[in-house]
Structure formats: structure tokens, C-alpha cells
Specification:
heterodimer; A: 330 residues; alpha/beta; Rossmann fold; Alpha-Beta Plaits; 3 domains; six-stranded mixed sheet; four-stranded antiparallel sheet; 11 helices; elongated; B: 233 residues; mainly alpha; globular
């Protein structure tokens, strides 16, 4: 799968990108971390940046947040260029760095107020923002606690709170579920999903399963290059089921096409005992799809000879893409 | 400007919530009190010259401890990433840290002012050398803080930062001895790098623009290089 060019995303008639990256390169001494990276993210999208360790995810995020300067190329957030106006770019972004860096000697409320004011809020507005974000992230009873005394889960919440406290248009998160317990992972996922459509969210991670549940789209990065850009909620052939059904092909095809969640049905070569093989493409999040398909076939009196999930899921894409090339040196 | 004020307040809170600072201030005052009393009873003159030389040495030893954590700790904890992804500039961050260190130095100088008050109550001191001595200590403190800040900006290890700045201070303290060994014109060049050569006139009541210029140049150079060090990433 070829990486789409930036021009494809920003062609006339399309909504302006919340994040726009074109031919981005970054060298660390003799090592090239990014090799001409180009992508675009529309406002309100939740996008996952996937890749093994050393693939350039964190470097990309650090350039987009104004922490690192690219060696060459263009990085724009909300139309603001990272090189021309780094302060303007930073003002639009809420950033959750990878290792949850926080001031351990500050209390939660003091820290959140400091970050809100640092991002330009007046003291009174900052106090209101702290109240709102602490209520949203259930930090209300921890506002007077020293950050150094918080558990990892609550530190992660505080890190999220500081990113959201100034109500940024773009939220950038680096491995946000690292080290969290299952309940905390679910909470983080729900929070991110609640931001979809409201804020543009870019999440770097190496956990595929999380992205399938959180993101609208994933981009797969390897050795500083974009290998794939894959939609999860629409457009992409993310769930495929193969059925072998005995019956009139046109009738079976029409029947399968009516099942909820099914996008298309293709009739392939004939199967065993006069049965034809059908490949159903469906939405990736279609629940109990196999059971519904089987129920429809059997319920209408057709004989079901075989049913197999042959989904081209994210893991398969990721593995097939990353196997093609040797592991990036760390 | 608001960003600078916020950062300065944060730095001052961090500095004054650290027990190291209080131990440092207590030791500073203890040694100063001892020197002041001994010099007063031995010489029986209303002068602070001995005290100024004592403070000069104490600054060389204590400023590395004050400045070592300024940037190195932010680098170690990763919080530097929070600051540098906020809409504030490297100049604001460095100036806030420098001014926070100077606040502590001013507090220490202010506390040592009690000895001048004692002299004023029980004697008739010559105020000229006292004013110039304090001005010299302020300028010395600024130069040392800027150099210490630079050392802290270059590493994530506080001990390395403290030892590096202490090494530079001790070198600048004793470099005039090395200068005396060199032929003309190198001897003047090296001797003029000496902290002592530029501080002694202040402590003894002589004000020269060249001495003030030396400390101010060192301060500006230290702050400028700290900004560059923070921008190098």
C-alpha cells in the first residue's frame, strides 16, 4: 500500500487539514529518523500512528508539537508552520508526552493552573478550566494531592488533564496507555472516543488492538517512512468473511448483501458439492457478523458448507508491511 | 511577559520548597557570622571587607548547588518537554531560571546585611566600600549563576552540572597565578579572566567600569549560551 501524497489530502474543495505534513525529514547525526514523511489529518479525526520502536513516531509528534525542528519539509498544525511560528503552533496543541513527565513537587490543581496559564489563559479562566477538566477526568478529590504521591494511572490522568486544560484544537498523545491497568485503558479509550469529532487527536502507539478501538484511521510508520494509511471506520476492507453456500448465486448474493454491516458481496469460484464461494466485506466494528450471516443463510433454507473469517485486519496489514523490510536499527 | 512571570514564580517555589536551600542559607549565615565576629573582635574596625572576601569564597562553593538543578532536573524528569511544547520561548525559560537563582542570592545578601546594621548601630562605618562590596557580590553572583545555569543546561545529571560549574569557578579563581607565568601580552589576557582580580577592587571600595563589564559580560555570555543549549535538540 503506497503512502498517499500530501497533495491528495489538501486538494481544492477539501476541508483544510488540522495537521498537514509534507516531505518531512529529520536527521539525528548520521541517522535519518524521518524519510520524507507526508500525511494530512482532517479536523475532528482520531488518527493512530503505528509502528515498532524506532520507527519515527515520537520524532513525528515532537516536530508537530514544536519540540524538535525538522531537518527539512513542512509541518503545519491548524495552518501554522512549525518552523515559522513555533509559539503559535504550540498554542493550538495539547501534548501528552510518552513518560508522563510532571512536576512531582506541585499539587495537582497548582500544576493544572500553571499549565493553563502558560498556554495563555487568564488566572480566572484557568481556575474555571481546572475545575472543568478535573471533573471530566474525575480528579476532583486529588486536586490538593502532591503529584509525586499519585499512582501511575492518576499521573496519566493529570497528564491528560494538562493537555486538555487549555481546550486545544489538536491533542497529541505519545503511548497514552503504556503501563495502565485494563480499567484505566478503557477509561482512556472512552475519553479519546468522546473527543472524536470535537478535537483532532493524533496518537502514537505500538499497540495495534488499542488503535482498532480508538482511532478512525491508522498510519503505519516504519524506518521513518509512511507505509500505509488505513481507515478503520469507513472505506477500508477491514473485515472479510468467506462463505461457501449451496443455492442460486444471485439469491444468496442478494440475501448476504441485506445483512446489517455488509458493504459488498462477491461471488467467487464454485465450492464443494455445487456450493459457490462468497466473500463478504463488512464494517470493521460489525458485531456478531458471522452469526448474522450464518443465520440469514440457514434461515432462508440454503445449505451453509463453510464460513471463515478472512479479515484483513490491522495486525495482518502491519505484519505484512513490516516483514517486507528489515527491523529498524535502534 | 506573563509566561516569564509564571515561570519565575514556578522556579522560585521550586527553589524555596527545597530543603537544600535552607541548609545552604543556614551554613552561609553561620560561617558569615563567625567571620564577622572574629574580624570585628580582632581588628576592632567597622569594616565588612573580611566579610566580602568570605562571601566571595562561599559564593564559589554554594552557587553550583543553587544552579545545578535548574535545567538538569527538568531534563532528567522530562518536564523540559512540557515547557518547550508550551507557547513560551527558550529565552523566557532561561531568564526565569536565572532570575530565580538571583532571587536566592539576593536573599542571602539581604540576610548578610544584618552585619552592616550591627556596624551602623555600634560604630561609624565607611559606607562607600560597603555599597561597592555589595554591588561586587551582586555582580559576582550574577556571573556565577549564569555560568552554573549553562552547566545545568548541558546535562541531565545535577552532580555533573555542579562539578562542572565548580571546576570552572575554581579555575577562574586561580587563573591569575597561571597568568603570571606567561609572557606579555598573554599574561594580561589570562590575568583579566580572573574573578579575584575583578572582585578585589569592589571589596576594597574601588569602582571600575572594566570590572563591572567583566562580570556583566560573563553573565550575558552564560545566559546566551544557556538559551542556545536549550535550543539544541
Amino acid at each position: 500500500m503506497d503512502a498517499p501524497s500530501a497533495e491528495e489530502f489538501d486538494r481544492p474543495g477539501h476541508a483544510p487539514s488540522a495537521i498537514f505534513v509534507e516531505n518531512l525529514t529529520k536527521w539525528y547525526g548520521p541517522r535519518q529518523a524521518l524519510k520524507g514523511l507526508s500525511f494530512s489529518i482532517a479536523p475532528g479525526e482520531v488518527v493512530g500512528l503505528l509502528g515498532p520502536n524506532g520507527s519515527g513516531k515520537t520524532t513525528t509528534l515532537r516536530i508537530l508539537t514544536g519540540y524538535l525542528r525538522p531537518t527539512s519539509g513542512k509541518a503545519l498544525v491548524g495552518g501554522v508552520d512549525a518552523l515559522e511560528d513555533p509559539a503559535g503552533l504550540r498554542a493550538q496543541i495539547g501534548y501528552v508526552p510518552e513518560d508522563i513527565p510532571l512536576y512531582n513537587n506541585m499539587r495537582v490543581a497548582e500544576f493544572l493552573s500553571f499549565m493553563a496559564q502558560l498556554k495563555g489563559l487568564a488566572p480566572a479562566a484557568a481556575a474555571r478550566a481546572v475545575d472543568e477538566v478535573s471533573e471530566r477526568l474525575e480528579l476532583g478529590s486529588f486536586l490538593k494531592v502532591l503529584i509525586g504521591k499519585l499512582s501511575r494511572g492518576y499521573r496519566q490522568r493529570v497528564a491528560l488533564a494538562q493537555a486538555l486544560v487549555s481546550d486545544p484544537r489538536v491533542l497529541v498523545m505519545d503511548e497514552p496507555t503504556n503501563g495502565l491497568d485494563p480499567q484505566q485503558i478503557i477509561s482512556t479509550r472512552e475519553l479519546v472516543r468522546s473527543l472524536a469529532g470535537v478535537k483532532t487527536v493524533l496518537i502514537a502507539t505500538h499497540i495495534l488492538a488499542e488503535m482498532q478501538k480508538m482511532a478512525d484511521r491508522v498510519m503505519i510508520l516504519l524506518e521513518g517512512k509512511l507505509l500505509a494509511d488505513h481507515a478503520l471506520t469507513q472505506g477500508g476492507p477491514t473485515r472479510r468473511i468467506r462463505l461457501s453456500v449451496a443455492g442460486v448465486p444471485e439469491q444468496v448474493q442478494a440475501l448476504l448483501a441485506r445483512v446489517a454491516g455488509v458493504r459488498s458481496v462477491e461471488c467467487e469460484a464454485g465450492g464443494q458439492d455445487g456450493a459457490a464461494t462468497y466473500v463478504v466485506e463488512a464494517e470493521p466494528r460489525a458485531e456478531e457478523l458471522a452469526a448474522r450471516l450464518a443465520g440469514a443463510v440457514v434461515g432462508h433454507g440454503f445449505a451453509l458448507a463453510e464460513l471463515a473469517d478472512v479479515s484483513t485486519d490491522l495486525e495482518q496489514i502491519f505484519l505484512s508491511l513490516t516483514r517486507r523490510q528489515p527491523e529498524a536499527p535502534l | 511577559m506573563r509566561g516569564f512571570r509564571l515561570l519565575l514564580l514556578k522556579e522560585e517555589r521550586a527553589l524555596f520548597s527545597s530543603e537544600i536551600v535552607y541548609v545552604l542559607a543556614a551554613m552561609f549565615l553561620l560561617v558569615m557570622g563567625y567571620t564577622f565576629s572574629v574580624a570585628l573582635f580582632l581588628n576592632k574596625t567597622a569594616s565588612l571587607v573580611h566579610l566580602f572576601f568570605q562571601m566571595y569564597v562561599l559564593f564559589l562553593l554554594t552557587v553550583p548547588i543553587i544552579t545545578m538543578r535548574l535545567v538538569a532536573e527538568e531534563r532528567r524528569l522530562g518536564t523540559i518537554e512540557l515547557l518547550l511544547t508550551s507557547p513560551v520561548s527558550e529565552v523566557q525559560i532561561v531568564l526565569a531560571k536565572f532570575c530565580a537563582a538571583m532571587t536566592l542570592i539576593l536573599v542571602m545578601l539581604g540576610l548578610s546585611g544584618s552585619y552592616a546594621v550591627v556596624l551602623a548601630i555600634f560604630g561609624e562605618p565607611d559606607w562607600g566600600p560597603i555599597y561597592s562590596g555589595y554591588l561586587g557580590l551582586f555582580l559576582l553572583g550574577a556571573a556565577l549563576s549564569a555560568i552554573g545555569l549553562l552547566a545545568s543546561s548541558l546535562t541531565s545529571n545535577q552532580i555533573v552540572a555542579a562539578l562542572a560549574s565548580l571546576g570552572v569557578f575554581l579555575l577562574l579563581w586561580s587563573i591569575d597565578d597561571f597568568g603570571f607565568l606567561l609572557p606579555d601580552p598573554y599574561d594580561a589576557l589570562v590575568t583579566n579572566l580572573s574573578l579575584a582580580a575583578h572582585f578585589v577592587p569592589f571589596a576594597t571600595g574601588s569602582l571600575y567600569l572594566s570590572d563591572a563589564g567583566y562580570f556583566m559580560s560573563a553573565t550575558l555570555l552564560g545566559v546566551f549560551l544557556s538559551v542556545r543549549a536549550l535550543g539544541r535538540r
